[in-house]
Write a structure and sequence with these properties.
Helix content is 29%, strand content 21%. The chain has ten helices and 18 strands. The protein binds flavin-adenine dinucleotide. Flavin-adenine dinucleotide binds next to helix 2, strand 2, strand 10 and helix 9.
Amino acid sequence: MQNPDPDWNRRRFLQGTFLASGAVVASTSETVAASAANDQQPEIVDTVDVLVVGGGTAGTVAAIQAGRLGAKTLLIERGSQLGGTMTTGGVAFPGLFDAWGKQIIAGIGWELVKESVEMDDGTFPNFAKVPQRHWQNQVFTNQFLYAILAEEKCAQAGVAIAYYEFPRSVTRVDQGWQVDCVGFGTSRRVFCRQIIDCTGGAEVVGLLGLPRLREDERQPGSFLYMLGEAHEPGRNQIHRLYVHGADSTNSRTATQANLAGRKSILAKVREEKKRLMHLQPETGFRESYRIEGETIVTVQDYTSGRFFDDAISYAFYPVDLHTREGVKPEPLKPGTLPTIPLRALIPKGSRDLIVAGRCVSSDRLANSGLRVQAPCMGMGQAAGVAAALAAKSGKTPLEVPLGEIRERLREHGQIVPERA
Ligand SMILES: Cc1cc2nc3c(=O)[nH]c(=O)nc-3n(C[C@H](O)[C@H](O)[C@H](O)COP(=O)(O)OP(=O)(O)OC[C@H]3O[C@@H](n4cnc5c(N)ncnc54)[C@H](O)[C@@H]3O)c2cc1C
């Protein structure tokens, strides 16, 4: 469904906004993280309604949703493809779209997963059946097809994609943001009404100096790889190797994780004398920063299946904390169905900014269940709706009537939580 809102004269609206602000740092008193380089002439200047930063599990869905609602949307991704942990990290078994015998998360994320599986002649779990082990209902997806289909859907929704770029500074301007981005050989200045931060570790929130939470010792990351017999045709089993201390905070710590992970895999290849059949290009990071939002989802909220008044997505997964000793998933009690509130996507005290994905405002244990892919996609879709409607109406996402957000989510195929 594309541009169902033809009356939205956003171009005129935004031009008015930014021309009025002189398309420069209009309100220097509100400048939060401007860099000296702001004064340099950027190569490219874009004016959009919604800027999505991070084209991973949540961000891809957020961008497609904003585009489908007619918002002029730009997606900035520092890597080379869409999908994030799901594709570049190789965690191509998203879960969980179902709970207790029925589907609980659908929408754009499900549409992408479904098409990738169908095109690949793959199989789906039977959501009508409650599995013995939670992972049995994860959906095995072709990561390569997923990444390409995501690009196709972005193009169809009118979403522009900029790979190899990331924001260097974010500055408040009249009724929106100036975001200065760099890539190799590229500098870009983006004026936007709304930002959706889907970087996994809430990097835009960090650039703005807003509060974030992080554990001293985080869950290990994992490198995904596959060993086989010498020159034997590929086997299906994907292996994971813990990278303890993996830290996605910056390029230096991420480099360390990649070096340590690949070194361990090389040792394994030598030890097992098998052929290295497959290796993802980088470490998958389970945990880094979480935002401190307008509300924080606690593990009690999560395990009791609390229904939040402003719930915008369901979530379902065991509490799943990986440590040096491994992982012992703690399944939810029968019938428990957690929800995710909109306020957990809003950095405390912010305007015109929303996050989606594993950085959702939550305590560590709640986050260990909320961080999985289907809820990330559910949050992404809700953030896409909230940001698009906020850009249209000149409001901040929390001021958009909740009923309108939910209505649009339903129209776009999402399952909206309802009080039992
Ligand atoms: C090893 C491992 C196993 C897992 N197992 C499962 C499982 O079995 N089932 C399941 O459902 N989930 C699983 N998860 C969890 C799940 O995959 C992730 O929590 C989820 O994909 C995170 O989604 P996200 O959108 O928040 O972040 P990501 O998918 O990581 O996307 C973030 C994106 O932002 C980009 N980015 C980051 N910073 C910037 C920046 N400054 N500028 C521009 N772009 C930026 C990144 O390149 C990336 O593309 C696992 C995770 C790991 C690591």
